[in-house]
Amino acid sequence: MPEDKTIAVPSPTAFSQSEIRERTFNLAYKILDTLGLRISRLNDLEALLGNIVDTPETENCCPRPDFGPMAEECMSKLQGLQQLVDERLFAGKAFMQPVAFDRHVSWITREVEMSISRTRGFIEWALGKRPGEIPSERRLLAKGPMYMNLAGLYGSSELPSLATSFDSKSSDEVLQQVKGVLETLELLFEHAKAMTLILLSYGKDRFWDANGIRHFLDCAEHLAFLQGFVHNSQRDGLAITKFMVDKFDQSAARLDCCIRAFIMAYDTLPMGDVPTQHDISSLQASCKGKNLDGVYAQYKRDDKAMDLLFRKYWKVRNHAVNHDPAAAQDLEGCADTTAIRKRQMAAETLRERTSRGACSWNSGCSKALGPDFIKDALAILNGLLRADMVALEKLISGLKVLCPN
Fold first, then answer.
1. The whole model's pTM is what?
2. What does the alpha-carbon distance between residue 231 and residue 229 come to, in Å, rounded to a whole number?
3. Using one digit for the tens of pLDDT, what is the confidence trace for 282-306?
4. Which domain holds residue 103?
């Protein structure tokens, strides 16, 4: 466990207007990497604190702290900011507004340092010694939500560093090395894609509760930035500079950790046969022969029909609750409208984030996913949507019986 030493980093604001583009991005990457290491330190401390509080020999004499863990939220915000920087760098754009960058960094830094301070203080009070003095076997490394996993994995990628051998390679050799790393990431992402189709087909569990589809699409978007950069470099016959190879190294290493964090978050969920009404092969067959635009259009029609049903449901429900609240509550227990809405929103997220920029390497994540995956995923989600529509119609009919008029 690294020492608890706050690291001060400069702001890129001073350089953005007068210095070259590379210096600004270099500084931004340094700032973000420093923050990532601090969040990883916070995650270690929070895992240790959880171990102390939940261990039988200490839980009775150690009250629970009056503050919650922050590593997961901070890592989620950091990853979002890192992707904004990556997107602009690999698309050949100028750096983002420095003031906005500074504002995001300041918020994350403040939360991380405050959380480290109070978590470390609580551990010292509970055990009578500094966290750095505690033997490593006392620390926990457990699977959890994606961004908590990412905090634990941060900096652990074993992808080769291409920048270290850059000077001894020709332009063609550098390009081939970059493509090799990209292929490794694509292979790992194929595992995440296959897993996601199965998780989608269940229609429930913590993948849905934690908005796992958004986490998955974040990985796809990150991969798309790197794919777009390599594609454009090869298409335009441009040699990849040492600066860009170095940034490719860093971004690829983070993506490697992100995909592994995603897989860790959900690989303990049931992966056997799915419910027959959500059978993947039959749902995929429903899209056979359709182009992607046709699948989008079909889902959009069904989505609008679901919105109309929900409006009808709320109107009828209010009347039913006024007349017989107990009976209305019993009926609602047979159809989980919250879960139905989550499934609808997940499908809408997939449709929106893949339909925009579907023809661009530098926008959206369609290229990283591929049209076959998008069609299969939307087919599964559409099957869930139609089953949910039947359940909601049945609930509405039951609620109507409770209303005299």
1. 0.84
2. 6
3. 666 666 666 777 778 888 888 899 9
4. 1-142
